[in-house]
Write a structure and sequence with these properties.
Layout lengths: L14 H16 L15 E9 L6 E3 L9 E10 L2 E10 L6 E2 L1 E5 L5 E5 L7 E2 L11 E8 L5 E4 L9 E12 L2 E13 L8 E11 L6 E2 L8 E4 L13
Parallel strand pairs: 1-15
Antiparallel strand pairs: 1-13, 2-3, 3-4, 4-9, 5-11, 6-7, 8-14, 9-10, 11-12, 12-13
């Protein structure tokens, strides 16, 4: 007795994700990678990008989470010398789109005032609609020196009590094609205590986003059947789909 063939249920992926998958296929072809390696790309839920970039004072570091040619986030280092002393810092923020926001909260300076602090999330943290995205341009880490140089202090959740942090995560919320998506950026931060440019340095080693709108993402998730990995060094001009 022959059995009737079972119908396969199909699902439609968004136009934006389809464009990205085409880009990844182009990248793989240009890099000499078999397209079979992308056989499961249409089922990918997390797109992870490997990188290694270092911040420098006066040179903003931009993050284009989905490689569509539009900058989504900005890391900026600062160096300010005034009558009251010297400040060297690192901050994160969304870029151009007011709906692109870094997870953070108000934090106490310890001396009576509050500031916006970017959350330094551990691996495994859940980033999504329930996260705190209420502050703008939050500070990651800052060194403060008084005018004479005898007093040193630090601020920010990435300062690590003056020692910096290794492999912590920025929670990211951004919008593309009119829909909210969540992601993360993995960084290590070092503090130099030398009263000079680049005393506070951020090293960006990877970032990722969830392709399904409004779905949470797990910080540090870079492997598994639902993850596709991209190396920006291989992208060249192929990923610059929109200006």
């Amino acid at each position: 007795m022959s059995s009737a063939p079972h119908s396969r249920r199909t699902s439609k992926i968004s136009d934006s994700l389809n464009r990205q998958l085409i880009t990844y296929a182009q990248v793989a072809s240009a890099a000499g990678v078999s397209l079979l390696a992308l056989a499961g790309a249409s089922e990918a839920k997390v797109v992870y990008t490997e990188t290694n970039q270092v911040t420098h004072t006066g040179l903003p570091l931009y993050i284009d989470l989905n490689h569509d040619g539009i900058k989504d986030f900005l890391l900026r280092t600062s160096f300010y010398r005034g009558s009251s002393g010297l400040q060297v810092g690192l901050a994160a923020s969304g870029y151009r789109n007011a709906n692109n926001v870094v997870a953070g909260r108000r934090a106490s300076s310890g001396s009576g005032y509050f500031f916006s602090a970017a959350s330094a999330l551990p691996a495994g943290a859940r980033i999504g609609p329930r996260g705190d995205f209420s502050v703008r341009s939050p500070l990651m880490a800052m060194e403060l020196f008084d005018g004479v140089g005898s007093q040193y202090s630090y601020q920010g959740l990435w300062a690590g009590k003056g020692q910096g942090v290794t492999n912590r995560y920025l929670g990211l919320r951004f919008v593309f094609d009119g829909e909210v998506h969540y992601g993360w950026a993995r960084l290590s931060v070092t503090l130099g205590h030398h009263r000079q440019f680049d005393d506070v340095i951020g090293t960006l080693t990877g970032y990722a986003y969830e392709t399904v709108p409004d779905k949470p993402i797990v910080a540090g998730q870079i492997a598994g059947p639902g993850v596709i990995t991209v190396q920006p060094e291989s992208l060249g001009g192929l990923a610059m789909g929109r200006k």
